[in-house]
Amino acid sequence: MAGKIRMKSAFAAIIGRPSAGKSTLLNALCGEKVSITASVPQTTRNKIRGILTEERGQLVFLDTPGYHNSDRKYNNYMMGVVNSSLDECELVVYVVDSTRPMGKEEQELIDMLTASGKPLVVVLNKCDSNSQYKKDIRAFLIVNVHPESIIETSALKKEGIDELKEAIFKAAPEGPPMYPDDFYTDQEPEFRIAEIIREKAISKLSQEIPHATYVEISDMEMKGEGDKQKLWVRAFVTVEKESQKGMVIGKGGDQIKQIRREAVSELNKIFPYKIQLDLRVKVNPKWRTKDYLLKGMIK
Ligand SMILES: Nc1nc2c(ncn2[C@@H]2O[C@H](COP(=O)(O)OP(=O)(O)OP(=O)(O)O)[C@@H](O)[C@H]2O)c(=O)[nH]1
């Protein structure tokens, strides 16, 4: 008699230092664009769930902001998100950037992960870069983490992803799926729209501004019926200073129009209805020190 196929099911937290490639890896694993990526560190602020459902089971990924030790209020919130993901998950996908040497921060992160007692799947990412540090990093991980294996990936080129999935499913406990099998993310439309606008804005702005930016959706309304259905959205790109406002708007409004066009084009690929976006810029001084905003943003 054939044995019953045992399904795997787990919440898996993707944890690593800023810019290790966590969001890119999540997208490669789930095959859909679920988390924004950027070349500026610490662009991920929320726990974003990407869901991978296969015959062998279901993995629900929690993306976290890069682990970064700092006393500043903003970073403390970020760390709260990392810690709560660690509490909620059944296993950790620990992402290490093979192009950067190990340091104190990495050691602290390893201490935190090993103390959690959760199974760790160790990923050495950016292996397309042929880094001079790779050999030393491997040795460091073997001594300090004692992993069963280290999976080498290029999240960017989608290499090593099948092997990584195999390792994660192997580490996952048995259980029934937690979401319907056609779900690939449980983010609310409002959150996804804000994240995509933020990604488009960040890609246009200079190094200092991205961290001073968040996107607020102030109104949404579904208009029309059937094929003609449209979602009308009013959103604000919010910055900290008047001088930054001008930089986002650009000469003659060129920049904000470009951000709007790019965001709409991407949103129209994701949603089954057309998106009509009214995009504006406003100033909210020191929003990063305001508890109520941070609490609303970091779920
Ligand atoms: N060469 C190379 N670059 C990569 C790879 N994976 C990610 N990157 C790049 O590294 C940068 C950071 O990637 P993200 O996926 O945003 O990193 P993250 O760890 O989510 O970043 P935070 O949200 O800041 O913690 C981006 O410019 C990516 O294109 C990879 O496998 N190879």
Radius of gyration: 20 Å
List cofactors, ions and other ligands.
guanosine-5'-triphosphate
What do the pLDDT scores average to? 82
Taken in chain order, the helices and strands follow as EHEEHEHEHEHHEEHHEH
Shape: globular
| Low-pLDDT stretches | 294-299
* CATH domain class name of the largest domain: Alpha Beta
Structure class: alpha/beta
The major pleated sheet works out as: 6 strands, mixed
Domain KH type-2: 205-285
Region (G2): 42-46
InterPro entries: AAA+_ATPase, G_ERA_dom, GTP-bd, GTPase_Era-like, KH_dom-like_a/b, KH_dom_type_2, KH_sf_prok-type, P-loop_NTPase
Subcellular location: Cytoplasm; Cell membrane
Could you explain how this protein is built, in words?
- The longest helix has 17 residues, at 254-270.
- This protein has nine helices and nine strands.
- It has a six-stranded mixed sheet with strand order 2-3-1-4-5-6, sandwiched between helices.
- Mean pLDDT is 82; it is low at 294-299.
- The termini are far apart.
- The protein is of the alpha/beta class.
- Helix 6 (189-204) crosses helix 8.
- It has two domains: 8-171, Rossmann fold (3-Layer(aba) Sandwich); 189-297, GMP Synthetase, Chain A, domain 3 (2-Layer Sandwich).
- Bound molecules: guanosine-5'-triphosphate.
- Guanosine-5'-triphosphate binds next to helix 1.
- Guanosine-5'-triphosphate is lined by residues 16, 18-24, 37-39, 41-44, 65-66, 125-126, 128-129, 154-156.
